[in-house]
Write a sequence for this structure.
């Protein structure tokens, strides 16, 4: 079976410094190239939380001290993070493929993800980004820049941005063309640069699109067979961390919804992954979403492990 | 005549801040889309001098002051600049096309350009990048980081990096696939992320590849008909700025070489443009390189203005 697969990697797996990232992507590349070597067509999506946070903080810090560095809006920081992460990731995949005598083109496409300007997420921003501030600094940012700031677990104040749902991928034709021509594409990095449509314009908005939802969207667009959402654990569990803990092999959409309603999955952690998996699985009969760890991705595709969410 | 064209834009035309860049790319997009509207297949390359300098300075400034921002190597800053510039440029072109009912995919490919590790440029770095330092700071950077530092016209010390020649484009298959499928591609941004080959690895090196040479290389790879190198003037001149000033309509390779030998073209300004134009024109019979201004690009293709360098 040669499947078309979209793999969603976590940004936390990419490290906090360029050197860490270069080292970590080498390990990331191996299971990805296993999938490629077995004949699957793989497209990669990835998070960028720590990386865009770092870039945003650096730009912010510098704009206050260095005369010739401007303030950098958040979507532009996201665009930078796609170049930065894609550069390392594509090289690690290229090297791993060449080491196995696989010669397929691999490239990063700077990708914008379109969100609805009326998405209710814009009413109440919830996603913390960037540095911590004192209450006074936070008040200044609210007044001067109109930022939304919240107190974060006693560690200080942070800016929060909305986390709207992806509705389309601006560069979808480009990604499709490359995938149809057997290229390995890195796309929707960090969930994509968030933009809203205004007539013929695409306008960047300070927001963070969940990378698992963005991966689900591009998987739909590509008519993928599988969406693999990688996480730290091999399977999804209910009653996680209790004596009734139970690891799940397979979930129908109804079962997944029931477990969500029962509060089994942590918001900001397993919940968005399960929801993104459901979103993809429900988009068309036969589409399968798999939640597992990077190391187990291939065994998961072979049906040996992971949690499969299917539309039955 | 529907030609395949590579257009090389200067980084100075893109502005120093995100807001400047968003405004400037709107004007840049118009003549580019004129070419597209007249049926030409256009691929875009661009410089990144001011932008990568800004990113490099910001990263450098922040790494000294903010605890959680790492030092960022120069090639990674280049990768960031490709995302940052490509994001704005692709949107401006998209918007201008949609305004004329042209619906072609446009996208930025994060692009690495391979240089020879034995390029003589590595022996004597000449290209200044980033901030100005005092003599003491410069000495420290030489000792601690092994940077090459030079005194820059009384304004202080700056880091210099080599400017090696491009020998190949790592993502060429991806760019070719997109161009063959009628996509507008933004590639080799800033001359490309400079990398050397080491077995199966591509390793980033602190260097700046001249964007006109990189444009010539990708134009060769794409088997383009035209390379258009955009500059501030409509034509190339000899005896520039003197009473014998003469604007040139057409140059054979021999004439161009003769004028170079006579010292007509300023290093770091018109000289690399003429050399890059010659490199492309000499790569195959029939290939034409045009040096002109952004506004005159289309008239140039129609043979009405600009300086054409041809292999006769």
């Amino acid at each position: 079976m040669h499947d078309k697969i979209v793999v969603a990697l976590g940004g936390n797996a990419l490290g906090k410094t360029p050197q860490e990232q270069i080292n970590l992507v080498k390990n990331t590349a191996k299971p990805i190239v296993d999938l490629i070597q077995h004949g699957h067509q793989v497209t990669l999506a990835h998070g960028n939380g720590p990386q865009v946070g770092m870039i945003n903080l650096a730009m912010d810090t510098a704009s206050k001290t260095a005369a010739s560095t401007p303030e950098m809006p958040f979507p532009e920081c996201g665009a930078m993070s796609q170049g930065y992460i894609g550069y390392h990731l594509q090289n690690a995949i290229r090297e791993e493929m060449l080491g196995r005598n696989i010669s397929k083109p691999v490239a990063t496409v700077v990708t914008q993800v379109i969100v609805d300007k009326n998405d209710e997420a814009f009413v109440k921003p919830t996603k913390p980004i960037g540095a911590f501030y004192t209450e006074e600094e936070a008040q200044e940012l609210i007044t001067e820049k109109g930022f939304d700031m919240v107190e974060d677990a006693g560690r200080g104040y942070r800016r929060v941005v909305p986390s709207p749902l992806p509705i389309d991928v601006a560069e979808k034709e480009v990604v499709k063309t490359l995938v149809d021509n057997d290229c390995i594409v890195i796309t929707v990095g960090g969930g994509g640069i968030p933009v809203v449509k205004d007539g013929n314009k695409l306008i960047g908005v300070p927001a963070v699109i969940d990378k698992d939802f963005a991966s689900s969207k591009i998987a739909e667009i590509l008519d993928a067979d599988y969406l693999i959402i990688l996480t730290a654990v091999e399977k999804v569990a209910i009653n996680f961390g209790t004596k009734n803990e139970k690891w799940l092999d397979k979930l129908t959409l109804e079962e997944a919804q029931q477990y969500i309603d029962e509060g089994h999955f942590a918001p900001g952690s397993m919940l968005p992954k399960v929801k993104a998996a459901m979103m993809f699985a429900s988009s068309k009969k036969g589409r399968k979403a798999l939640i597992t760890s990077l190391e187990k991705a291939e065994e998961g595709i072979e049906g040996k492990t992971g949690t499969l969410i299917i539309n039955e």
Summary: Chain B has a mean pLDDT of 94. Chain B touches chain A through 59 residues (CB under 8 Å). Residues 225-312 of chain B form a domain with the Carbamate kinase fold (CATH 3.40.1160.10). Chain B is about 40% helix and 25% strand.
